[in-house]
Amino acid sequence: MTKKILRALAGETLETPPIWMMRQAGRYLPEYRATRAQAGDFLSLCYNSELAAEVTLQPIRRYGFDAAILFADILLLPQALGVDLWFETGEGPRMSTTTTQAEFDQLRSVSDIHETLNPIYETVRILRRELPQETTLIGFAGAPWTVATYMIAGRGTKDQGPAHALKAENRAVFSQIIDLLTQSTIEYLAAQIDAGAEVVKIFDSWAGSLTGQDFHDFALEPARKITAAIKSRYPTVPVIAFPREAKENYIGFAKATGADCVAIDNSVSAEWVAQNVQVDGCVQGNLASSHMVTGGQALVDETRRIVRALSNGPHIFNLGHGITPDADPDNVQIMIDTVREGSAV
Ligand code: CP3
């Protein structure tokens, strides 16, 4: 097993941490914008296997990241369950809402999802053929809670208010949504692995708005069930969990869910992560993505600080959240050079 990402995920402390970046294929890259224009719009790009593979490969060619992440979106799964999905320019995703038993009953069943998602599996197959042999291919899905927040509100929300309201007012429908998403996420990730994904990541971008028992029931438990199902079918495939902004709930998350690695946002310090989370295994993170916009000495200093703080255990260098469209592509190269400075690779 020579791929650096797989070694780190297996618990090895490497001299230089492997690197990839959330949203590494994205609008900050001129070549991405050109391919997206060729596809027509974002969703057409996701479902065009050749072009989706092309944009996945673009940051690998430009920067030589240690991992490629499948180009797709967490909201394709609810779309495959029958939800209407579209993107409003400059505003983000919009969906038909699911908040009543009647609306829930209209959704398709787990076994129907592949009909819509087949082009995504084809993207994975193309990537396994075309990626350099040292590059790890990461598949992904949204976590049930995060995907549910979009299905319930019909859009992105600052405080996930509509999902919290449904959880309080109609627990039966809310729980059915979480359970359907949990089961379909297992099948979606399994199909990505069958097509060639070597690692899978579960994005729980809104985990931080769950506290106490709710965090346990709707962030931790679904991640545990998904991880257990994946591990029972594919014992050697590593799972990365990203309960974003979980704060103190990051502690013990890997042990409780069975995940091989916890991805960490930048609301906690790398020193805290080393003491509290990395003690249980591999961590990924956690440079603030704003440094990709502002650059300069602060970018170099902060990158060095994170590498140093996490150098005594398994670590995959990454941002705390996705790179933004206003980032300067040159700053990405500076980050990579800083992480790899002094190493032979
Ligand atoms: O990381 C990668 O490069 C892989 C591809 C990927 C995308 N979205 C592509 C994308 C992944 C892993 C995601 C995950 C995703 N999608 C999440 C979880 C991670 C996170 O960012 O918190 C969420 C919440 C979504 C839902 C989503 N998709 C939103 C809210 C938006 C609009 C916001 C924005 O940045 O415009 C998207 C669109 C989206 N997904 C883009 C990309 C590259 C931008 C689309 C474009 O080209 O216009």
Describe it for me?
Helices cover 50% and strands 12% of the residues. The protein is built from 16 helices and 9 strands. The protein has a 7-stranded parallel β-sheet with strand order 1-4-5-6-7-8-9. A two-stranded antiparallel sheet has the order 2-3. It has helices spanning 4-9, 30-39, 42-47, 49-63, 76-80, 101-105, 113-130, 144-153, 161-169, 171-195, 212-233, 253-257, 270-276, 291-294, 296-309, 329-340, and strands at residues 67-69, 85-88, 92-95, 136-142, 199-204, 239-243, 261-263, 282-287, 315-319. The chain has 345 residues and is of the alpha/beta class. Bound molecules: coproporphyrinogen III. Residues 22-27, 36, 42, 69, 71-75, 92-93, 140, 142, 156, 203, 205, 322 line the site of coproporphyrinogen III.
Write the layout of secondary structure elements.
Layout: H1 4-9, H2 30-39, H3 42-47, H4 49-63, E1 67-69, H5 76-80, E2 85-88, E3 92-95, H6 101-105, H7 113-130, E4 136-142, H8 144-153, H9 161-169, H10 171-195, E5 199-204, H11 212-233, E6 239-243, H12 253-257, E7 261-263, H13 270-276, E8 282-287, H14 291-294, H15 296-309, E9 315-319, H16 329-340
Helix pairs in contact: 2-4, 4-7, 7-10, 8-9, 8-10, 9-10, 10-11, 15-16
The chain binds coproporphyrinogen III.
How many E strands?
A: 9
Q: Sketch the major β-sheet.
A: 7 strands, parallel
Distance between the termini: 17 Å
Shape: globular
Helix coverage percent: 40-55%
**Widest sheet, order of strands:** 1-4-5-6-7-8-9
In DSSP terms, counting alpha (H) and pi (I) runs of 4 or more, how many helices? 16
Compute the average pLDDT: 97
**SSE pattern:** HHHHEHEEHHEHHHEHEHEHEHHEH
The low-pLDDT segments are none
Ions, cofactors, ligands: which are bound? Answer: coproporphyrinogen III
**Helix/strand-derived class?**
alpha/beta
